[in-house]
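INFO batch 0412 | record 1 of 1 | parsing
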Amino acid sequence: MTKVVKVNDSRFLSGITEIPSLKIGNYEFIFEAELSDQARRVAERELRETPERKKEAIAELRRLLDQEKDLTYPDNEFWLVKFLRKCKYYPESALEMIKKYYGLKAEYPDYFQSCKLNYLVDFMKAGLGISINRRDHKGRRILIGCVNRNIEKMQSSYGFKDLIYATYLLFEILCTEPDTQVNGVVGIVDLKELSWKLLKPLTPSIIQFLIRYGQHCNPLRLKGLHVLNESSIIDATYTIAKNFLTEKLRKRIYFHGNDLQSLHEYIPPSCLPKIYGGTIDVDLHEWAQIDDLEEQLTPIMNIFHKEITAINAYGYGKGNFIETTHF
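INFO prediction complete | emitting tokens
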């Protein structure tokens, strides 16, 4: 029988109670703790979520997990619900996703271990990843990634696993928001400065890992991936990669070239920064160069480092809480 570690039913496994907002200049990202009325309606309409079904599905998922050998899981309602929401409250499907989630961690442990704080700071300064502090018209978080020459500098100091961990950390952070669990996220990837050299670390093994994690192990609902300024490099790469993507995911990937009006058909300008033809007065490059960025990020990263440590204490062949140092 599975060894279950009892934890409280708060949003976090590690005992933390809240996350401070990230405020830099006129930018403030607030981590939302409550399910909004809008998201509650979406959950009922799209995910089949009702109080009765939620209670029954949690009980059934616990029963199924208890039958799994060598797999420990956190007996935490909030943690279980994020998988049930992704799987539209089908306990059997949620069970399979949890098994794949921890199975992938067992197969690729290095990709889920902590990276250094200075990498996370450099990651944001390079403009490689940021979440806009405003949701789109459907309540979804907007993630923006910009592939640029700064990656080349980072490749000389860090490994590709650091980039994977930073992305994983961002996803786990967003999974603590009930509205994001329900409404999902949309991604914008700007490939204006992409080159073959930057793609060199993308081995077939890493590509396979990324596809497996994104499609089968990540409890976030990806509602759309919008690619800007793509080149023939991406056209060739995607031609191969799409054979390993589900039909649902393929339909949610859009290529816009340099046509911002095409992007605005899916994400209105009121939800985008000015660099992408939007009205939000946030300069992503200027924001990332703030002198006290590291000072602002450290408390939040320490909190989530603690939470990731707690999550990683469960899985296949585990059962004891693993202590690690803070950043």
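INFO post-check: The CA atoms of residues 94 and 151 lie 36 Å apart.
INFO record closed
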